[in-house]
Structure formats: structure tokens, C-alpha cells
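Propose amino acids for all 271 sites.
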């Protein structure tokens, strides 16, 4: 299969090397287009006011992997790959393997997920992969799972393009409990901005918040009942696979909003 690989941790991150090399070793045609430096927590930002540069990268990956390091953000890299660097759409897009989890509301900030979502917007089935630790350095179980997931998608393609958000627990392969299909959970932060002064006496702030995980995220839809959240699955030692979409419409509340707006005329000058 023709595979496009991106990330937000940068071209020299061990996670993307493990992923791209494992996929290439499995016989896939792999192209890497990723940031030239770490671009974590940049969300779905795009570069609008300066040019993008993409430089070929040699010596970091499997000999068959074609790789570029881009000066932009994760979503920039995927847009550039799809619109300028590749001859056609890839069969699949993979983003990662991220160093650190992307659970619950993390997906709104994650450059890893945003890179994958850019593929889904272009009608390419995409996979975001994250290892749920900032210190655990064995990416091989996550890379091996990615190879198996790609193999399954080749045999049984999904009925429509979507994004699969995959989080792999920071455990040796033999200790991973299995795989669970999950729903997006809650992951809240107690943000703390430390106030500091630079050598010239000017004030700056450093974000140093504490994560607060809530595993009992309330069910919104009937089909949520009995389904683990991604946070719960990871806590129990499972690989979490959550299907995501870019349509954020809150369908359950459309009728309520319609009835709420009904008495008001948008052209009325009355308060």
C-alpha cells in the first residue's frame, strides 16, 4: 500500500522512525512528510504568512522510505504532501507515533491528531498513533500494532474515510491486555501559569499545568452506554481505538436550538 506518515514531534523523533521503518519493512511504499522540529500541541494550525520549505531527509529511515522535513506545522505538512509532494492520494495516512497520550479532549490540541484529521478531510482513511507516556521509550509494540492494523485495513477497508485515534499503553507487548473500541472521554487540566522574569527583567509566563483525568465521562448518546472511554481503556491496559470525525455538530441539540431561536427575528431591531 502507499502510505503517508506524519507527526508533530519532528523528523528526528524516535516514534516516527519506529513507525515508518516498521511499515517499510512490511513491504509498504512509505513517504514521510513531517515538521523539521517539534510542533506538539499546535492543533490544526496552518502557516499563512510565510513560505513553507520542504527538504529531503536521508539517513534517518529505512532505505526505501522517501522523507521530507517541512518548516510548517503538522497540518501544513500533510496539506503540502497531498497537494504538492505526492503524485496522488495515499491509500492510508498515519500520524505518530506520538510520545505521550492523546486521550479525551487532548485531540482538540494535538498536532498528531490534527495531521491525521487533515487526511480524513481529504477523504483518506487516517490513523493517529500515540504511546501513552513521556518517558517510556519502547515504541515497537505500537509500531507492530500499526502494521497489523494497516494489514487489516487492506483486507477490510472501512466503509468510509475516517480517523482512528489509537492510544497504546506504555507496557511491554506481553503485558498489553488487548484492544478495545472506545468513545472519547474527558481529560481536564488544572492549568498553572508560572510567572517568571527574563534576564532583562521582562515578565513571561510558562504553562505548567496538572492533568486531571475523569474516567466517568457521561454518556451522551444511547450507544455510549457500556462503551469504555479511551481514558478507561488505557487505565486497564488496553489499546484504545476511537473513531473520530471532523464534523463537530451537536446533533442532539439542534431541535432545542431551533425552538429557542423561533420567537426571535434576526432582522428585528428590538432588544
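Proposal:
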Amino acid at each position: 500500500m502507499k502510505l503517508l506518515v506524519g507527526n508533530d514531534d519532528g523528523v528526528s523523533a524516535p516514534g516516527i522512525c519506529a513507525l515508518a521503518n516498521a511499515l517499510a519493512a512490511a513491504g509498504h511504499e512509505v513517504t514521510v512528510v513531517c515538521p523539521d522540529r517539534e510542533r506538539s500541541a499546535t492543533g490544526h494550525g496552518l502557516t499563512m504568512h510565510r513560505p513553507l520549505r520542504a527538504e529531503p531527509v536521508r539517513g534517518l529511515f529505512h532505505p526505501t522510505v522517501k522523507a521530507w522535513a517541512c518548516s510548517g506545522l503538522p497540518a501544513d505538512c500533510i496539506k503540502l504532501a497531498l497537494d504538492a509532494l505526492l503524485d496522488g492520494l495515499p491509500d492510508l495516512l498515519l500520524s505518530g507515533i506520538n510520545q505521550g497520550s492523546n486521550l479525551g479532549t487532548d485531540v482538540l490540541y494535538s498536532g498528531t491528531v490534527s495531521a491525521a484529521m487533515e487526511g480524513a478531510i481529504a477523504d483518506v482513511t487516517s490513523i493517529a498513533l500515540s504511546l501513552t507516556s513521556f518517558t517510556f521509550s519502547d515504541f515497537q509494540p505500537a509500531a507492530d500494532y500499526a502494521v497489523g492494523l494497516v494489514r487489516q485495513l487492506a483486507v477490510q477497508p472501512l466503509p468510509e474515510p475516517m480517523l482512528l485515534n489509537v492510544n497504546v499503553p506504555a507496557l511491554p507487548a506481553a503485558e498489553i491486555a488487548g484492544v478495545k473500541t472506545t468513545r472519547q472521554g474527558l481529560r481536564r487540566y488544572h492549568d498553572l501559569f508560572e510567572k517568571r522574569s527574563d534576564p532583562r527583567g521582562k515578565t513571561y509566563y510558562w504553562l505548567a499545568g496538572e492533568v486531571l483525568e475523569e474516567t466517568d465521562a457521561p454518556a451522551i448518546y444511547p450507544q455510549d452506554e457500556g462503551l469504555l472511554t479511551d481514558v478507561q481503556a488505557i487505565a486497564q491496559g488496553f489499546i484504545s481505538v476511537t473513531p473520530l470525525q471532523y464534523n463537530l455538530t451537536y446533533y442532539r441539540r439542534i431541535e432545542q436550538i431551533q425552538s429557542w431561536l423561533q420567537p426571535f427575528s434576526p432582522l428585528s431591531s428590538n432588544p
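The first strand starts at residue 2 and ends at 6. The mean pLDDT is 91.
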